[in-house]
Amino acid sequence: MKRLLILGLAWAAISCHSKTESGSSVNYTISGDTIFIPGNSNLKEKIKTAVIGATPYSHRRSASGIVKAIPNNFAQIASPFAGRIIKSFIRLGQHVAINAPIFEISAPSFFEAGKAYYQSKQEMQLAEKNLRRQQDLLKNGVGVQKDMEEAEVSYELSKRDYENSIASLNVYHVDPANMVLGQPLIVRSPIAGEVISDNIVIGQYVRDDAGPIALVAELSKIWVVGQIKEKDINSIHESDKVEIEAAGIPGLNIDGVVYHISEMLDETTRSVEVFIECANSGRNLKPGMYATVLFTEKADNSILVPTSAVLQMEESSFVFIKTKRNGYVKRMIQTAGTDNDRIILKSGVKPDEEIVTEGAFYLLETK
Questions:
Q1: Distance separating alpha carbons of residues 134 and 150, to the nearest angstrom
Q2: Regarding the domain delimited by 78-216, which CATH topology (the fold level of the hierarchy) does it fall under?
Q3: What is the mean pLDDT of the chain?
Q4: Which CATH architecture best describes the domain 21-56+302-364?
Q5: pLDDT for 84
Q6: pTM exceeds 0.70 for this model
Q7: What 3-state class would DSSP assign to 260?
Q8: Could you tell me which of 44, 139, 230, 291 has the fewest CB atoms within 10 Å of its CB?
Q9: How many CA atoms does the CB half-sphere of 335 hold within 13 Å?
Q10: Is the CATH number of domain 62-71+218-296 1.10.10.10?
């Protein structure tokens, strides 16, 4: 029996390690992965713990973006014909309505279009008279069926030419009924908005393939196009609300809504374009500005711990969990991000577990 007792004490000495320094001022016991600290140890005063619970938390992600005008609210106005500009109706910064005149140009090609309209109109009127005459002759028994049929075909063809000439003039917002042969063409704005560029020069000759000489944009609403990384695509949805921070306007936060998520992934940056529509009544956001887009997911229950509770070892993170009888055990964790002085955990800590929030590094020194 005495021999068995000696073997038991030896086994306990091997499996358990205790340390005392400065006359029991520091003491602890290590058993496997657990560190036990008695109540009279001065380590107790250096270590603080807290019970961790799950709290509603909205995960936030940020992305870089650039401000752009909405394409349907942006018009590049050029001359449809070669000619000489003889009048301007606008000034820079002016608000114009839809179909408002922008400039007037004397263009030989437009004169030819007007001439073609009048010719087609006269031809249609003559063809209509001829058709009526053939119908009357046939009705009175002196006409020929073949001549009437030919008159019908001629009328239909001339009517179609007339309608085509009207359609070609309507493209340029010209009312044929009030048009005068030889009049200059008034180029009009296809949208309502502000004149943001005015390069109109009176007397300037422009070619039919020249670039735009005026820009009109409606900037009360704009797009902010953000770049979302491939791994975050599934957390972004259309109609999600986001916040916009303009790089050039510190402190200004603007609300936006996800309008569209691109179907194409940029293979170079491994990101997807997200189009965010924002109200811009104050014209604070200018096309071309850089911005930061803040996406906020729907709130869910998450575990957040103080940054002082998390320790790092090589590529791994861990915390100390307090167990019964003043025991502390190291627990590996996975993190999902940071929020000021808190760390969001993916796994490793369960709700209502007690962890070391301060002084965890003292426990490392016991190893």
A1: 9
A2: OB fold (Dihydrolipoamide Acetyltransferase, E2P) (2.40.50)
A3: 86
A4: Beta Barrel (2.40)
A5: 96
A6: no
A7: strand
A8: 139
A9: 19
A10: no
